[in-house]
Amino acid sequence: MGLSALSLSLVLVFQFLHAYAAVNVSWSTITSDSSKNVVQSNFLGVSFELSFMDQYFGNDTSTIPQTMLNYLSQIRNRTGSNPVRLRIGGNSADSSTYLQNQTSPMLKLTDPDANSNNQPVDYGPMLWDVLQSVSGSVEGVEYLIGVSLSDPNNTDGSKIGGDAKSILGNNLDSILVGNEPDLYTSHGNRPLLQNYTVQDYIGEFSEVSDYLNNTSAGDLLNNQICSGPTICCDWDLATLLQQGYLATFSNILKYITLQHYPQNNCFGSYQYGLPYYLQHSNTVALAGWQQHGIDIVVSNTSAGHPRLVMSEFNSASCGGIANISDTFAVGSLWTLDYALQMAAIGYSAVYIHTREKGVFYNLIDPPNRTLSGDTWTTNPPFYAVLVLPEILQSDNGSIVVDLNLEGSMTSNSTVAGYAVYDAGSLSASRLVLFNYDNSSVEFSLENSASGQPSIKYLASSDITEKRNIAWGEESFVGTSDGKAVNVTRDTDGFSWLPSSGNFDCSGNCAVEVPGPSLAVVYLSDSVSSSNSTKSNSARRTVVPASFAIFGLVFTFGFFYLGT
Ligand SMILES: *[C@@H]1O[C@H](CO)[C@@H](O)[C@H](O)[C@H]1NC(C)=O
Ligand SMILES: *[C@@H]1O[C@H](CO)[C@@H](O)[C@H](O)[C@H]1NC(C)=O
Ligand SMILES: *[C@@H]1O[C@H](CO)[C@@H](O)[C@H](O)[C@H]1NC(C)=O
Ligand SMILES: *[C@@H]1O[C@H](CO)[C@@H](O)[C@H](O)[C@H]1NC(C)=O
Ligand SMILES: *[C@@H]1O[C@H](CO)[C@@H](O)[C@H](O)[C@H]1NC(C)=O
Ligand SMILES: *[C@@H]1O[C@H](CO)[C@@H](O)[C@H](O)[C@H]1NC(C)=O
Ligand SMILES: *[C@@H]1O[C@H](CO)[C@@H](O)[C@H](O)[C@H]1NC(C)=O
Ligand SMILES: *[C@@H]1O[C@H](CO)[C@@H](O)[C@H](O)[C@H]1NC(C)=O
Ligand SMILES: *[C@@H]1O[C@H](CO)[C@@H](O)[C@H](O)[C@H]1NC(C)=O
Ligand SMILES: *[C@@H]1O[C@H](CO)[C@@H](O)[C@H](O)[C@H]1NC(C)=O
Ligand SMILES: *[C@@H]1O[C@H](CO)[C@@H](O)[C@H](O)[C@H]1NC(C)=O
Ligand SMILES: *[C@@H]1O[C@H](CO)[C@@H](O)[C@H](O)[C@H]1NC(C)=O
Q1: Cβ of 69 below 6 Å from ligand 4
Q2: Residues contacting residue 506 through CB under 8 Å, at least 6 positions apart
Q3: Does ligand 4 lie within 6 Å of residue 101's CB atom?
Q4: Is the CB of 213 under 6 A from ligand 8?
Q5: 2 lies in a domain?
Q6: φ/ψ bin of 132: left (φ > 0), alpha (ψ from -120 to 50), beta (otherwise)
């Protein structure tokens, strides 16, 4: 009794004190210049491993699961005039076989003994029919697809490119030639070479991309259809770009692609625990991987220059990590932080990866159709792909700036914040405030907001929560149809739910961000996502300092009495 009263008092005291140390949030005006990276609402796409496309999308155009279409519609409904970005690829795009005569099913696993992280399939043009049908159903999806570089003498790339282009038309965004060539040596993919070098790669990239000049859909190289180098790990991007890659391919390259995870779980162990992901400075450092190469890509602002894309990422490679990748803190908050950071430093799109049912970093898990009653589940990363389009939505595109709150870009801090500017008006349209802590933090907005601002929270009860998560008042908890339900504080397990809606910003403009959560502040009515007028009841009552001190004195008094 004594002990629990003591800890309760201490908790209250620290929360009161914490509420006093408000985090000041100020944002500067920005000017228009070509060095500013303008991103669109569909910045955060989803990457699917080729091998498991059937688990999500069915076997042919007549078996596309409605639930999957509902999930994609949820994203599409938030991207305004932009299509949803999907990528189909991964290691399996390099190891699989394309058969033009294979109809239904659109793909089949071919090697039951394959490494679980690289399972080859036989697949055929039905895949493109399914993707085209999906795009029609959700009113706009554009695709990155892969062409294999595993045998550069194999001309199937011409068939893949021709079929995909004929069927997908303008929904075919780009073709990634090869996947993670910097791992070919360590994966034993070039047994005849002691070291597969950048020069070997450039020669092979040239050979395989040339197959795209003569396809059933014509010369695809005319319109910068290719992307690469899709390196992840061992090669230096700047060196590769300067050793001939850019000079040789700049006329056919649409995107310069990277794939990078903060750590791997490929060998049964991993380097970083959950706290790594809660530290914004680690996310900033992570996004700076290949900074020299990124500078080369981003500083080229000439017409038709290749843009920077992260074609695959997630919290840990080889399927993620239990109780890390599948948590609210990592799946939802860290994913948004990393995506916003990449938007701030020059990427034009990023794709979060998802694999077969049961993998820890998946956005959603499809049902195992051989188990009766098994159903779809929504995991924490799916909330990130819903929230980002609402943050970035703008007719003119958006410019994202890290506010370096409390020096969080380089120091230990439990907060982080971004300002999002409309690329047309250059006015700040949104603030994104992260609180990775378990207790509440008050943010004090220093600049005045024009009109009536509103706030919307992505929140949960705990950093390790996996299901009870809400964006505004919507949640996927307990659903299996890919549609959100509305939750309130009366919903079982949601008593912590902060209220989204308009808030008063005249005078002291402070917002309370419960821990853990992310708050999106819509700075004027025109961009408000919600017109409901609600008080910001998540805000804690401001308690006089003397009360807090009294609490402390009282607590210590009790402490001495108790021991
Ligand atoms: C926040 O700003 C207020 C007034 O502008 C100032 O008094 C206070 O010291 C600032 N707090 C921090 C943590 O910088
Ligand atoms: C695809 O085919 C497999 C094998 O016949 C079947 O088990 C599965 O249910 C099919 N998928 C869909 C979505 O119909
Ligand atoms: C998306 O919006 C359309 C109308 O624009 C609506 O019919 C559909 O129900 C919405 N889908 C979801 C999943 O919210
Ligand atoms: C499909 O094409 C492949 C390769 O061209 C061939 O080996 C296979 O026999 C064909 N299958 C059918 C059913 O025609
Ligand atoms: C591709 O073919 C050329 C000769 O046509 C041969 O020298 C080379 O070894 C082949 N490459 C591979 C990876 O098989
Ligand atoms: C292998 O090739 C890569 C890329 O060209 C290079 O960075 C690396 O230093 C080479 N390794 C060895 C052992 O030569
Ligand atoms: C283009 O491809 C077709 C079919 O593979 C082939 O017959 C033709 O010779 C190729 N043309 C050129 C110029 O390579
Ligand atoms: C495609 O490229 C190859 C190799 O550069 C060349 O031989 C061929 O003529 C080109 N085909 C077309 C249709 O341009
Ligand atoms: C589905 O469940 C069965 C029975 O537990 C299992 O053997 C099979 O591997 C599962 N399949 C998938 C795709 O998860
Ligand atoms: C703070 O950051 C330093 C590195 O900058 C790290 O060594 C230390 O563990 C961090 N402390 C906490 C509490 O996260
Ligand atoms: C959920 O709330 C939204 C407004 O936020 C409303 O439009 C919608 O009808 C509600 N859905 C249900 C099922 O109550
Ligand atoms: C939004 O709320 C304001 C009052 O705050 C009201 O005047 C206006 O009509 C509302 N707009 C819509 C579209 O409901």
Answers
A1: no
A2: none
A3: yes
A4: yes
A5: no
A6: alpha
- Residue ranges of alpha helices (H) inside 372-452 are 380-392
In a domain, 386, yes or no: yes
- As a whole number of angstroms, the distance between CA 164 and CA 506 comes to 55
The total domain count for the chain is 2
Reported as type and span, the H/E element at residue 545 is helix 545-562
CB of residue 240 inside a 6 A radius of ligand 6: no
Pair (412, 307) in one structural domain: no
The DSSP letter of residue 181 is G
Q: Within this chain, do residues 327 and 431 fall inside the same structural domain, yes or no? A: no
Q: What CATH number corresponds to the domain at position 233?
A: 3.20.20.80
Q: Which residue has the least CA distance to atom 2 on ligand 8? A: 210
Among 155-169, 378-392, 532-546, the minimum mean pLDDT is found in: 532-546
What span, in angstroms and rounded, lies between the C-alpha atoms of 72 and 86? Answer: 10
Is 273 in the same domain as 412?
Answer: no
- Return the residue whose CA atom lies nearest to atom 7 of ligand 6: 235
In a domain, 552, yes or no: no
Are residue 370 and residue 406 in the same domain, yes or no?
Answer: no
Amino acid at 303: A
d(CA 298, CA 562): 63
69 and 137 Cβ atoms separated by less than 8 Å:
yes
Mean pLDDT (whole number) for 377-398 = 97
Whether residue 543 has pLDDT greater than 70 = no
**250 lies in which domain range?**
44-392
| Beta strands, E only, 210-252 | 226-231
pLDDT tens-place string over residues 10-47: 444 444 444 457 999 999 999 878 789 999 999 999 99
pLDDT in the model for residue 160: 98
Question: Ligand 1 centre and the CA of 446: distance in Å?
Answer: 9
pTM of the model: 0.89
